[in-house]
């Protein structure tokens, strides 16, 4: 990632980063668009990812392991929930 970020800065280029690792995205991107089952569910500044209200975005944000979660179960996605029709107005 460091090399990609350096190259973009040197060449004054943009970078499109496609990832499930939202903490990594928040570190290296300005804006974020989150998709679930081919539909946009969230769009925001990367700095606001930790405050996302959509359940899918929240799950992606919290499912990254780190030292504080060692030995614990990480959150998983409840695929039975119809997240396309959320009351958040995030569509």
Describe this structure in words.
The protein is an alpha+beta fold. It has a domain at 17-63. 27% of the residues lie in helices and 14% in strands. It is built from 3 helices and 2 strands. The protein has a two-stranded antiparallel sheet.
What is the H-and-E element order?
A: HHEEH
Our estimate of the beta-strand percent is: 5-15%
Major sheet characteristics: 2 strands, antiparallel
The mean pLDDT is 84
Measured between the Cα atoms of the first and last residue, the distance is 30 Å
Count the strands? Answer: 2
State the helicity in percent bands.
25-40%
Q: Please identify the structural class as seen in this structure.
A: alpha+beta
Based on Cα principal axes, name the global outline.
globular
Strand order of the main beta sheet, please? 1-2
Radius of gyration: 15 Å
Treating each run of at least 4 consecutive H or I residues as one helix, how many helices? 3
Contiguous low-pLDDT stretches (5 residues minimum) are: none
Keywords:
hydrolase; 27% helix; EC 3.6.3.-; globular; alpha+beta; 91 residues; two-stranded antiparallel ribbon
In short:
The protein is of the alpha+beta class. 27% of the residues lie in helices and 14% in strands. The longest helix is centred in the first third of the chain and has 10 residues, at 2-11.
Write the layout of secondary structure elements.
Blueprint lengths: L1 H10 L10 H7 L2 E6 L2 E7 L9 H8 L29
Antiparallel strand pairs: 1-2
Enzyme class: hydrolase
Keywords: ATP-binding, Cell membrane, Hydrolase, Membrane, Nucleotide-binding, Transport
Family: Belongs to the ABC transporter superfamily.
């Amino acid at each position: 990632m460091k090399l990609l970020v350096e190259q973009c800065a040197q060449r004054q280029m943009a970078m499109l980063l496609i990832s499930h690792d939202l903490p990594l995205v928040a570190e290296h991107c300005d804006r974020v668009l989150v998709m679930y089952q081919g539909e946009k569910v969230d769009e925001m500044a990367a700095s606001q990812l930790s405050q996302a209200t959509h359940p899918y975005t929240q799950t992606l944000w919290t499912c990254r392991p780190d030292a504080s979660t060692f030995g614990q179960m990480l959150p998983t996605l409840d695929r039975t929930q119809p997240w396309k029709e959320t009351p958040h107005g995030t569509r």
